[in-house]
Specification:
Pfam families: DUF4003. This protein is mainly alpha-helical. It contains 16 helices and no strands.
Length: 314
């Protein structure tokens, strides 16, 4: 995908969302549409935006920094926006019912659920993870927990394997923290059984990107997991590097360096038949969903910083 297409779409999104919406939100929305191979339809987006504002209370996260991200998901959904919103709220309520505190993260997780019945197993995996990382495991993990809890396999074994991956990557120079925890979670996508070669693949991908002078920051750790899950080979990685360099050269990404690698991966996945069809179609769709979870999670952290800087006395 040419950078002119990205810049053109970003211009349309930014104009539609208005000056009061942070430009990184506009960029996130742009990437959601482009990674799905869809044009940005301003009328459709605005119609769903109005629906959310009409249905949701003033204190709902769906009217705050998650608003346009959720709007994009509902526009792109298979059902009507009204049905999608009702399903989202039912899933979110189910997460509350199993003692997940209502937050932007439960709404984000609810987007990824097929039915409210998934909440109970998600709670089980969360509690199993917390047994290993009591202070690190928090509401930020809920979207990943929801995505992974309904994969086949024992919940306790999956949590134990996450912990083993976390410790293994620490010995390979990865920094401790939430980003590494998210990576260790993503690494269990295929199986809850510990596989040393998966950790080796992660290290190899990181080293390849660094050798190509592509910055790999902490917030990019989960992206390495997505590439390992998709079994990205040398050709796919070179395509990602080429895309990253194109993004680096564009005016748009000059101010948003953190977004270069995730955006390059998303766009390459959207265009690469080999990468997207490396496994069954359902698997490819699940990997894309993981990518979207990470993108939205990054937006939440960005929004928290924005809110903090705008309210220094709070």
């Amino acid at each position: 995908m040419e950078t002119t297409k990205i810049e053109e779409t970003y211009g349309q999104v930014s104009k539609a969302l208005g000056w009061a919406v942070d430009k990184q939100v506009s960029l996130a929305v742009t990437m959601i549409y482009l990674s799905r191979g869809r044009e940005f339809d301003v009328d459709a987006h605005n119609e769903v935006s109005r629906l959310i504002k009409k249905k949701e209370g003033f204190t709902s996260p769906l009217r705050a920094h998650l608003h346009h991200i959720v709007t994009a998901y509902l526009v792109l959904g298979d059902e009507t926006a009204e049905e999608g919103l009702a399903k989202l709220n039912a899933n979110q309520q189910a997460l509350n019912d199993v003692k997940f505190w209502k937050s932007s993260y439960t709404y984000l997780a609810a987007l990824m659920m097929k039915s409210p019945g998934e909440a109970e197993r998600a709670r089980g995996l969360y509690d199993a993870m917390k047994a290993h990382h009591p202070f690190l495991t928090s509401s930020e993990d809920i979207p990943y927990v929801v995505l992974l809890s309904n994969r086949e396999g024992d919940i306790r074994e999956r949590a134990e394997t996450m912990n083993r991956y976390y410790k293994e990557l620490r010995t390979q120079g990865f920094s401790a923290g939430n980003h590494l925890q998210w990576l260790s979670q993503a690494m269990t996508f295929d199986t809850p059984v510990f596989q040393p070669e998966v950790a080796g693949r992660i290290v190899a991908i990181r080293d390849f990107l660094k050798a190509e002078k592509i910055k790999v920051r902490g917030e990019h750790y989960p992206v390495l997991g997505f590439l390992a899950i998709a079994k990205a080979d040398g050709e796919a990685l070179r395509a990602i590097v080429e895309m990253a360099r194109e993004l680096e050269a564009s005016k748009l990404f000059r101010w948003y360096g953190t977004w270069i690698l995730p955006s390059a991966v998303q766009l390459t996945m959207a265009e690469s038949v080999e990468l997207r069809e490396s496994e069954a179609a359902v698997f490819a769709a699940s990997v894309e969903m993981l990518m979207q979870a990470q993108q939205a999670a990054m937006m939440l952290s960005v929004s928290a910083v924005i809110a903090s800087s705008n309210n220094p006395g709070s």
